[in-house]
Write a structure and sequence with these properties.
Blueprint (H helix, E strand, L loop, with lengths): L2 H14 L31 H31 L5 H28 L17 H10 L3 H23 L21
Bound molecules: fe (ii) ion.
């Protein structure tokens, strides 16, 4: 070892001395504390079977909502054309609203004593939020029903309206003087 390297090694040792308590504990592996699909009973006066059924539905909805949130961001970036700026802003607003729903749904799953999914790639099948809301209500899980109806369904209904109005074929300046729409149209 050259005198120069020897001096460098001694310097590193001197620099590290007395820092053991401050070093980050890296490369640790924690024990699993709750297997996926199991329910931890919490004192919320809801039967575990109801919690399990609601959280299973909510996990599906969570994955779908994460996908929808990410699609809004994609289109926020990639939209083009004459209404670019308007849609660019609208899609980002919708993205933010879906992101809030993701948080609300995931936290509802956790408070039911279950484990929330974290990856949109876990999407397996699509179910209707309205059906899930009815199932939660029938089982006595009014909290989940309220989240589904008041937040998920109503937010998405509003977003659908905002998007659908962009697809109505109306003239920008001159009134359309053609025939009125008939039932056969
Ligand atoms: Fe942006």
């Amino acid at each position: 070892m050259s005198p120069r390297n020897d001096k460098t090694d001694r310097t590193y040792k001197q620099l590290e001395e007395g820092t053991k308590q401050a070093r980050p504990l890296q490369h640790q592996h924690a024990r699993e504390i709750q297997p996926y699909g199991k329910i931890v009973k919490l004192p919320i006066a809801l039967d575990e079977k109801v919690c399990a059924a609601s959280s299973e539905n909510l996990n599906q909805l969570l994955a779908d909502t994460m996908t929808l949130r990410d699609m809004y961001k994609k289109h926020h970036w990639q939209v083009a054309g004459g209404t670019f700026y308007q849609l660019h802003l609208l899609f980002d607003k919708h993205h933010g609203e879906q992101d809030e729903l993701v948080d609300q749904i995931a936290e509802r799953i956790q408070l039911l004593g279950a484990i929330s999914l974290a990856m949109a790639a876990d999407v397996a099948e699509l179910k209707e939020a309205r059906t899930m809301a009815r199932q939660a209500s029938d089982a006595g899980d009014e909290g989940t029903n309220d989240l589904l109806v008041s937040d998920v369904i109503r937010t998405n209904e509003l977003q659908v309206w905002f998007l659908a109005e962009h697809l109505v074929d109306v003239p920008l300046v001159r009134a359309d003087q053609g025939k009125a729409a008939t039932a056969s149209d």
